[in-house]
Amino acid sequence: MKRLSVCLAALGYLAVAAIGAPVFTDKGVDAGYLNPGDSAIVVQETEIRGDPGAATHLYAVTIRNDGTASPSHLTKLELRDGGNILLSIADLSGINTGGITVPLNYTIPAGATCSLKVLVWLAGTTAISGGETLKLALNYYYTLNGAASDSGWILDRCAEELVKAGFEKVEEMALNPAYFNPGNTGTVQVITWEDHDANASPIYISSLTVKNLESATQDDVTQVTVFLHANGVDLAPITLTDLSNWNSDGVKYVFRAPLMINDEQGLTCEIKVTISDTPTATRKIRTKVTLELRENGQLLEQASASPSTHTILMPGVEVVQDVSRLPEPRVVNEGGTLNQRILLQDDDANEDGVAIDRIRVWNSEDATTSGEELQEIAVYDARGLLGRVRDAGALSAFQGPGVEIPLSRPIVLHDDGRTIITISYTIADPVPGHTIRPKAQVWCDEARTYGWSPVAT
Ligand SMILES: [Ca+2]
Ligand SMILES: [Ca+2]
Ligand SMILES: [Ca+2]
Ligand SMILES: [Ca+2]
After folding, report:
1. Are both 293 and 186 inside the same structural domain?
2. Which pLDDT score is estimated for 7?
3. Residue 154 Cα, ligand 1 centroid: separation in angstroms?
4. Is the predicted pLDDT of residue 3 greater than 80, yes or no?
5. Any idea which ligand is nearest the CA of 166?
6. Do 324 and 226 belong together in one domain?
7. Is CB count within 10 Å lower at the N or C end of the chain?
8. What number is the average pLDDT over the span 307-315?
């Protein structure tokens, strides 16, 4: 009996101790992205509910980083109770390897609850690459009723990431690749830059540089216009007309006074180009914008390149595509016809339609059928016959400079309209084994500017 009562007393004692021990809880602080030069950012908070019957005395703490940020990325760490600084640690060596253990002298009165916060100071831009993480673990050592114990590792439930920015979020609008005709103006890039971080610092932009990563030069583009929307307001457009550097260093615009973007706000940047009247066809535009900026007194450079490449083409239809269905077997006999189907589409940055009143066709250099073997070339669309050539003299140009077929019924496309035409080649007296692979292009009038389209492929 005596032995049994002793055991019961021991169990009773253990039960009281478990209820009375202080309770340590990580508050799951999610500070957001940390930037170079950030100061006094709360990254971790532990709530400590003290023993109801006795004071808990914290006499030491170990602070460890389970993330990848090392002492070179941090300049200081503090432990605070409200405004009261309990610890200030400038030498953080060992924080990634076992942790730093430091003495503490802090008492939680019986029945009280307190919250202790860890604040960090970040190194400057040169020390930070971006992508480093902070995921703290703390172990508090305490005495309660004369007995020493510890909290066990309190793990930070939300890690913080270090970002070398500026703007933590940079997004390119997915623009469709566009065609530009001479004199056209249109959008080639739209970027959204957003500040998402733990600090309260605004961003000051001192300059903006626009560069072309593709082939179009200052001879092809006369003007770049930058439309900025900052802190919810449209700014006056910036016009850049000296584009002599835009294929090399880029064209730099320096703000007279730095453009301030409020903390946690954004900037939208739309780039428009104006094509010259005499550009070189097939030259291309893909722009990259670079910002020089300052946040927390740290200088940064951030850039974003457009994912879309745009192409300069002469006026007229931009899309000329052979969509023929070849006959099977691939043989055309005397008196038979070969039908070639061509898709024509205006697809550009202007608002002008296209008129077509002539078509030119010729045989590929590696094909052998001559104009003498043809009886007729005729052009049709959904309305019927548009034009034909039957004259032997005109047809003889098929193996050479090409046969021009005037259209007595011109094709008129609305802006960005499309149509499919059929070109019928009627065979006269063929040389067996000769081959035919016609190429075609159309004569276009777009806003009284004239020219041959690209060749159908
Ligand atoms: Ca930032
Ligand atoms: Ca900020
Ligand atoms: Ca066009
Ligand atoms: Ca057009």
Report:
1. yes
2. 31
3. 29
4. no
5. 1
6. no
7. N
8. 95
Of the ligands numbered here, which is closest to the C-alpha atom of 200?
A: 2
Q: Please give the Cα distance from 321 to 313 (Å, whole number).
A: 15
Provide the CA 256 distance to its chain's centre, in angstroms. 28
Same domain, 294 and 333: no
Instruction: Enter the DSSP assignment of 456.
Output: P
**Burial, 131: exposed, middle or buried (Cβ in 10 Å; 0-12, 13-18, 19+)?**
exposed
The rounded Å distance from CA 316 to ligand 4 centre is: 7
Residue identified by tokens 């000296």 is 242
pLDDT in tens, 206-233: 999 999 999 999 999 999 999 999 999 9
Q: How many domains does the chain have?
A: 3
Say yes or no: 334 and 428 in one domain. Answer: yes
Tell me the residue range of the domain where 143 lies: 20-161
Give the number of the ligand closest to the Cα of residue 264.
Answer: 2
Domain boundary among 103, 137, 161: 161
Which range, of 2-16, 96-110, 172-186, 402-416, averages the lowest pLDDT? 2-16
Cis amide leading into 182 (omega within 30):
no
CATH of the domain at 67: 2.60.40.10
CA 376 centroid distance within chain:
53
Counting ligands in written order, which one lies closest to the CA of residue 193? 1
Q: What are the residues whose beta carbons fall under 8 Å from the beta carbon of 419, sequence distance 6 or more?
A: 343, 344, 345, 381, 382, 411, 413
Determine the Cα–Cα distance for residues 49 and 126; give it in Å rounded to an integer: 41
pLDDT digits (tens, 9 = 90+) for 330-353: 888 888 999 999 999 999 999 999
Could you tell me if 114 and 32 lie in one domain?
A: yes
Which of 285, 312, 339 terminates a domain? The answer is 312
Ligand nearest to the CA of 415: 4
Please tell me the predicted confidence (pLDDT) of residue 166: 93
Ligand nearest to the CA of 315: 3
d(CA 119, CA 114): 16
CA–centroid distance, residue 316 to ligand 1 (Å): 47
Question: Is the same domain home to 275 and 362?
Answer: no
Output the domain CATH number for residue 280: 2.60.40.740
* Residue 323 belongs to a domain: yes
Q: Which of 284, 205, 266 has its CA nearest to residue 238?
A: 205
- Using a pLDDT cut of 70, give the percent of the chain over it: 96
Higher pLDDT: 115 or 15? It is 115
Q: Is residue 107 part of a domain?
A: yes
User: Between 203 and 449, where is the model more confident?
Assistant: 203
pLDDT > 90? residue 6: no
Q: What is the pLDDT of residues 92-126, one digit of tens each?
A: 999 999 999 999 999 999 999 999 999 999 999 99
User: What is the 353 CA–ligand 4 centroid distance (Å)?
Assistant: 5
Q: Is residue 8 part of a domain?
A: no
Q: Answer yes or no: is 14 within a domain.
A: no
- Half-sphere exposure in the Cβ direction for 399 (13 Å, CA): 14
Q: Are residues 240 and 353 in the same domain?
A: no
The predicted structure's pLDDT at residue 20: 67
Statement to judge: residues 240 and 148 lie in one domain: no
Ligand 3 centroid distance, CA of 447 (Å): 9
